[in-house]
Amino acid sequence: MATGVSAPGRAQVGLKTARTDRWWLAPLRIGVILLFFIVYATIRIFMNKWYWVDAYHYLTPLYSPCVTSSCVEGSSHLGTWFGNFPRFLPFSLITFVVLAGFRGTCYYYRKAGYRSLFFAPAACAVPEPHKNYTGERKFPLIALNLHRYFFYGALVFGVLNIYDGVQAFHGDGGGFGIGLGTVIIWINLVMLWLYTLSCHACRHIVGGRLKNFSKHPMRYRYWTFVSKLNPKHGTFAMTSLFTVILTDFYIMAVSAGWFSDLRIIN
């Protein structure tokens, strides 16, 4: 059965869309960004190198935590939980599964993905190109309901990223130090936490299912804070993509010796 504007009972308009503006530009732009990040992240996690700068204790978020015996010396802050990984297996497999799951099931990314990658639909007043639509009730889309559980995992990794950020205050040869890499890492941390805390699942967890806010003043305070962040969740989602790429690329470049870290203190 036809769906959307072609459904029975709807006025049958011959035009594919009555919009005369460049409605396709927004979904195209978001689609290019999403595809670029997917390709970049996939290449990086399979490289299994250039993720740690020992002199300044910079660890890229794409490889944090590095908990296998295959990790370079000094990068395993939490110890080695696993033995050596085969060359074809990414060291950051756990990180990739949790964080990709969190972003992939995110309400904002679902909207962006539907409009930009699946054209379902690409924009308002533009017909749905798919003949059938079953919603998110069947496999694989039903797995999107795991978003809340991926959120819990993202919180854990967020704390680990803070630990990595503290480690980045390491001077050349020891002691306290700050470099451009430290600044970039902490800017990324701020954006990641803004994205995580503005999440719809976070808002529901801290304030959902409450019948009386006055009896739960702390949860109401948290809910109010998250509610102020929530309208900008999409902005934080896209901005954090760029900060993650920037942080990873900078650490990769310093680790590979393409250029030296700009030191501010020590």
Structural class designation: mainly alpha
The value of Rg in angstroms is 22 Å
Mean pLDDT metric: 89
Between the first and last Cα atoms, what is the distance in angstroms?
A: 68 Å
Number of strands: 4
Strand residue percentage: under 5%
Low confidence ranges: none
Strand order of the largest sheet: 1-2
Helix content: 40-55%
Largest sheet: 2 strands, antiparallel
Give me the strand/helix succession: HEEHHHEHHHHE
Q: Count of helices?
A: 8
* Shape designation: globular
Structure description:
- This protein is mainly alpha-helical.
- The protein is about 50% helix and about 5% strand.
- It is built from 8 helices and 4 strands; from the N terminus they run H-E-E-H-H-H-E-H-H-H-H-E.
- The protein has helices spanning about 25-45, 95-105, 105-115, 145-165, 180-195, 200-205, 215-230, 235-255; strands at about 50-55, 60, 180, 265.
- Strands 1-2 form a two-stranded antiparallel sheet. Strands 3-4 form a two-stranded antiparallel ribbon.
- Strand 1 (about 50-55) and strand 2 form a beta hairpin.
- Helix 1 (about 25-45) packs across helix 3 (about 105-115), helix 4 runs antiparallel to helix 5 (about 180-195) and helix 5 runs antiparallel to helix 8.
- The radius of gyration is 22 Å and the shape is globular.
- The relative contact order is 0.14.
- The model has no long low-confidence stretch (mean pLDDT about 90).
